Amino acid sequence: MTHVTKTAGTTTETVETDAGTARITWHAARKARLVLAVSHGAGGGIEARDLTALAEVLPAHGVTVARVEQPWRVAGKKLAPAPKTLDAGWRGIWPALATSGLPVISGGRSAGARVACRTATELGARAVLALSFPLHPPGKPEKSRADELLGSGVPTLVVQGGNDPFGKPAEFPEGTYALVEVPYGDHGFAVPKRADLSQEEAVAVITDAVVEWTGSLG
After folding, report:
1. Would you call 161 helix, strand, or coil by DSSP?
2. With helix as H, strand as E and coil as C, how does 171-210 read?
3. pTM, full prediction
4. Could you report the per-residue pLDDT of 112-145, keeping only the tens digit for each?
5. Which of 54, 124, 58, 131 is nearest to 95 (CA)?
């Protein structure tokens, strides 16, 4: 069961999943060749600067963007549930993402990136976009989640802040994925005022990288 509402430039759709009601905000490309589905992290929503910027920029490049709110977020809860529940929510929204018949890139930031990696092969994702992949908890590099990233099984792009406490670019293991660094960026891609690039320029690093990468996918 779905419910759809439309406003200028966007369409919002609610989708029932085994984990509860999820919500998709669609930003449609006029001549779409791909769908990029991106979900939020464990501590924020789809208003995150990177997800917002991708929704604004990518449709002009033939990529429809679907910003996905997991059921726990739609329900107003402040703490994300266990990984298996997040995966169940993502599986539940996938049929709605795939209805156009276009290839779907599975993506997300932080916890959402982990979900995308864990489920990509199973769901038939064209590729994975991992924004601020949480390689390990802050200060605990021994608790690596590299196996999730390396096990995505599809073309994968990681976009990582140069100063991300959940894993700096230099900490990432070798693999077949691509990695783009956002200089000075923290886990939310915020850059300090003393940095030699502005916040707008930092966000442009993200969108430029994703535009180029999605162009290579077809």
Report:
1. strand
2. HCCCCCCEEEEECCCCCCCCCCCCCCCCHHHHHHHHHHHH
3. 0.95
4. 999 999 999 999 999 999 999 999 999 999 999 9
5. 124
